[in-house]
Amino acid sequence: MALADFDLVLFGGSGDLSMRKLVPALYHRDRAHDLPSTARIICVGRHEWSRDEFLTALNDNARPHIAQELFDPAFWETFCTRLTYVTLDATNASTYQALVDVMRKDASITRIFYLATPPSLFATICNNLAGCGLATAQSRVVLEKPLGRDLASAKLINEEVGRVFAESQIFRIDHYLGKEPVQNLLALRFGNVLFEPLWRREWISDVQITIAEELGVANRMGYYETAGALRDMLQNHLLQLLCIVAMEPPTCAAPNAVRDEKLKVLRSLKPFTPQTIAQNIVRGQYRAGHVNGMPVPGYRKEAGANPESRTETYVALKAEIDTWRWAGVPFYLRTGKRMADQLAEIVVRFKNIPHSIFAQPNSSFQPNCLVIRLQPDEDLQLNLMAKTPGDGMRLRPVELELDFRETFKMPRMDAYERLLLDVLRGQLTLFMRSDELEAAWAWLEPILDYWEREQDQPVPYAAGTWGPAAASALIGRDGLQWREEALPEL
């Protein structure tokens, strides 16, 4: 599908996200001949850069993040002619005239405003765009996380941005929904007949969703200290993945058909009480340890940290969905920094066999698992039991694996490439709607209130491990294990 001509304005265009992700993603799509020849990219920032200084910044900060096999010096030079830099103070309405001056006046050209800025600037930028006549009925706005820090602030963002842009013009981005395996989860569930009859409480034991990072907070301490793992990762990425796993089949692939079903999941999550928060949520903070054999400091010893910080760098929780399909099936969500490995995966574990006809006990059988791996590799695994070669009937676990890179011999898009193309097409399916955002915050806010009211202290865990021992106890109370703990020794 050919894209219409556009002017894409990147607020925060000199910032880390634009340089590491957005500009390289646009280069890759231009290299694949997806962008119209006259489309333009306008980077907006507070640096008072000349054209040459801007190009130097691109070469230093964006170019290294372009896939080496796709980089072509001549094409890079051509791509850079699309890019313009505008010095602008997002909070000062008078400086927006510089942006007006470089925007094309043709009403048929789509205008896209990507706000890679703190959420505190969303309303100001949108109001200033409206004030200078740039926010039209044909415009679109992209909002990066964090979309608020609680329900009230999320509602305020929705209201203030909604005064300028209609809901159909607002793209709340979550890059995890652009990852290839998440797309394939939709294809697996709704493009095949095999799994859907089994995708329910009668056959599924539990679901685990993990996003683990080896990295610490790096240079994000100022943001992270006010956010923490629950706001930074669980409220958006993990809950969106849960919705994809648990939602009912939509009537079609239209944006609102899919988002309606995701909203139903969020509204069906069993509310937390003070008692269940204490029982079903583990909150941790990393201490000194070793990651990849190298010593790393604890969170409170990181540069700029509060030495008495209560900010969590790890969260694990047990969620329940009160529907006919999922009643009684626990969903375990966890995310953490300074973990033993970089890993993002969804594990759907089926129930064990009811009876063994072989000369080995039921306990020796590993439950069938479907593993959707998002990073570091993107693949699907189906864990089964199979007979070992040779005499006798002895069964052991085996894996059927689909490696997307090996199966599909074609260039792959990363998440931001796919989502940017969807923005340019006006395709909203993979973007959160305002009621989704508010439903997620409404479910999580009692946790935040409890932690603040009780002055809850996160439990320590050593960097380079899989988190606090209490997280193993959380899942262990249900007779289950996290996947890395349950893997057989072969």
Automatic annotation (TrEMBL):
PROSITE patterns: G6P_DEHYDROGENASE
Pathway the protein contributes to: Carbohydrate degradation; pentose phosphate pathway; D-ribulose 5-phosphate from D-glucose 6-phosphate (oxidative stage): step 1/3
GO cellular component, as recorded: cytosol
Pfam families noted in UniProt: G6PD_C (PF02781), G6PD_N (PF00479)
One annotated GO molecular function: glucose-6-phosphate dehydrogenase activity
Record-listed NADP(+) binding positions: R46, K145
Residues holding substrate: H175, K179, E213, D232, K337
Residues of the Glucose-6-phosphate dehydrogenase NAD-binding domain: 9-184
Documented EC number(s): 1.1.1.49
Catalysed conversion reaction: D-glucose 6-phosphate + NADP(+) = 6-phospho-D-glucono-1,5-lactone + NADPH + H(+)
Keyword ATP-binding: no
InterPro entries, per the entry: G6P_DH, G6P_DH_AS, G6P_DH_C, G6P_DH_NAD-bd, NAD(P)-bd_dom_sf
Residues annotated as domain Glucose-6-phosphate dehydrogenase C-terminal: 186-483
Domain of life, source organism: Bacteria
Family to which the UniProt record says this protein belongs: Belongs to the glucose-6-phosphate dehydrogenase family.
PANTHER family referenced in this protein's UniProt entry, alphabetically: GLUCOSE-6-PHOSPHATE 1-DEHYDROGENASE, GLUCOSE-6-PHOSPHATE 1-DEHYDROGENASE G6PD
Classification via NCBIfam families: PRK12853.1-3, zwf
Protein name: Glucose-6-phosphate 1-dehydrogenase
Organism annotation: Noviherbaspirillum cavernae
Source organism phylogeny: Bacteria, Pseudomonadati, Pseudomonadota, Betaproteobacteria, Burkholderiales
